[in-house]
Design brief:
With 448 residues, this protein is an alpha+beta fold. It folds into three domains: 100 residues, 3-Layer(aba) Sandwich (Rossmann fold), CATH 3.40.50; 70 residues, ATP-grasp fold, A domain (Dna Ligase, domain 1, 2-Layer Sandwich); 240 residues, ATP-grasp fold, B domain (D-amino Acid Aminotransferase, Chain A, domain 1, 2-Layer Sandwich), CATH 3.30.470. It is 35% helix and 27% strand. The chain has 15 helices and 22 strands. α4 packs antiparallel against α5 and α7 crosses α8. The longest helix has 19 residues. The model has no long low-confidence stretch (mean pLDDT 96). It binds adenosine-5'-diphosphate. Adenosine-5'-diphosphate (ADP) binds next to β6, β7, β8, β12 and β13.
């Protein structure tokens, strides 16, 4: 097992990783920007290293500084968390070149799944259903319009290098195709440094259901069931739950098996998530794979009672999986609300600044993962997630009641948050019945 791990991330996930390290007796080094000097993970770490000024390009994405910080502190491994460098194959390679263990899969697996087109092609070879689409990069406008006509509108244009719900454009009619392609290419080039695009059929009111997988280097691989992440805003997740109200045991097994096919094909190591869209009649289609720990991993932890970060570290250190597929039991129901410092009344505009009061809820079945404390100043440079509230109960309806109770207790003053939106979703009769699809928020809560 590692003796010292450098955490190359910030906020709640840095703290989350640190908590497990503390329990495992692993020393932690937090690499942080100047803007995060006073953050909770920095205060609680065994050691800290400032890796640069506030902008992520100068600090959290600054590979030379992070690698030097790891070498200077005698760290043996780097945990990248999510976002930032977590899916950067080049970073994983550089870590290895310096004798550092990158806690994640091999660079080749990151690269293959990071390119959405090569990921889709692999899935097709494996016989996993994918959404009808171009199956490859769009080389010209003419080709795109021919394909879109064949598939039928609406279609969605995506960036091959896309992520985080960005770089996607829905096109309703042929009239808009040329201009949207132009915008998408421009955006993809600026945001991801790669203008390559592909297109697929835009499914109406699908559910987003993803399978959590876990594998070691000895070929043992299991799945930990699904998370339903259908409650989204602009293709970004707001609420996640497990199990999915839409899955039968049989469908769960089939999707789990499909996810494990890719794990075996890639000889994948570590934790990962295979994302699918599911239609009303239970057809599922591969969308993409994330080769890292995800924001919403706590709902899986709640129903399996496993520590995913501990397992991730264990397999990265060369350990073998301590459990088999048949050992995995799903117990009860868990829901996670992402609390963002955003103003729902002003189109969810980020709301950085001083948090005066911060009183998280507690009690049976409640977990709060947050790096915020009273007096904390949310810096304007990073994403606006300030807390994850997770409620567990024996069944879905009790989990909803418990979440409502916890949302009501949660007091945050000084900045606006998405707490009221969560209240509105949780009290919605359609949501309570289990109705959810990726445009639910727009249709049932905000109104189109
Ligand atoms: P990212 O990597 O940016 O998160 P994804 O490919 O995971 O992008 O898609 C994010 C979300 O976009 C999905 O959860 C879904 O809401 C929407 N989406 C993506 N592809 C489609 C599609 N073909 N039809 C309908 N919605 C889609």
């Amino acid at each position: 097992m590692f003796r010292k791990i450098l955490i190359a991330n910030r906020g709640e996930i840095a703290l989350r990783i640190m908590r497990t390290c503390n329990e495992l007796g692993i020393r932690t080094v937090v690499a942080h920007s100047e803007a995060d000097r006073d953050s909770l993970p920095v205060r609680l770490a065994d050691e800290t290293v400032c890796i640069g000024p506030p902008p992520t390009a100068s600090s959290y994405l600054n590979i030379p500084n992070i690698v030097s910080a790891a070498m200077l502190t005698g760290s043996e491994a780097i945990h990248p968390g999510y976002g930032l460098l977590s899916e950067n194959a080049r970073f994983a390679e550089i870590c290895a070149d310096h004798g550092l263990c990158f806690i994640g899969p091999a660079p080749g697996a990151i690269a293959q799944m990071g390119d959405k087109i090569s990921a889709l092609q692999l899935m097709q070879e494996l016989g996993v259903p994918t959404i009808p689409g171009s199956n490859g990069p769009l080389n010209s406008q003419l080709e795109a319009s021919k394909m879109a006509r064949e598939i039928g509108y609406p279609i969605i244009i995506k960036a091959a290098a896309g992520g985080g719900g960005r770089g996607m454009r829905v096109v309703q009619s042929p009239r808009k195709l040329a201009s949207e392609l132009e915008l998408a290419r421009h955006e993809a080039q600026i945001v991801f440094g790669n203008g390559e695009l592909y297109l697929e059929k835009y499914l109406e009111e699908p559910r987003h259901v993803e399978i959590q997988i876990l594998a070691d280097r000895y070929g043992n691989a299991i799945h930990l069931g699904e998370r339903d992440c259908s409650i989204q805003r602009r293709h970004q997740k707001l609420i996640e739950e497990a199990p999915s109200p839409a899955l039968t045991t049989e469908l769960r097994m089939r999707m789990g098996e499909a996810a494990l096919l890719v794990v075996k094909a890639l000889r994948y190591e570590g934790v990962g998530t295979v994302e699918f869209l599911v239609d009303r009649v239970g057809n599922f289609y591969f969308m993409e794979m994330n080769t890292r720990i995800q924001v919403e991993h706590p709902v899986t932890e709640a129903i399996t009672r496993l520590d995913l970060i501990a397992l991730q570290i264990l397999v990265a250190a060369g350990g073998s999986l301590p459990c088999k597929q048949e050992d995995i039991r799903f117990d009860g129901h868990a829901i996670e609300c992402r609390i963002n410092a955003e103003d729902p009344l002003r189109d969810f505009r980020p709301c950085p600044g001083l948090v005066d009061a911060f009183v998280p809820p507690g009690g049976l079945g409640i977990r709060v993962d947050s790096h915020v404390y009273p007096g904390y100043i949310i810096p304007p440079y990073y994403d606006s997630l300030i807390a994850k509230l997770i409620a567990w109960a024996p069944d879905r309806s009790q989990a909803i009641v418990r979440m409502q109770r916890a949302l009501g207790e949660f007091a945050i003053t000084g900045v606006r948050t998405t707490l009221p939106i969560h209240q509105r979703i949780l009290e919605n009769a359609f949501y309570q019945k289990g109705e959810a699809y990726t445009n639910f928020l727009q249709r049932r809560i905000l109104g189109s």
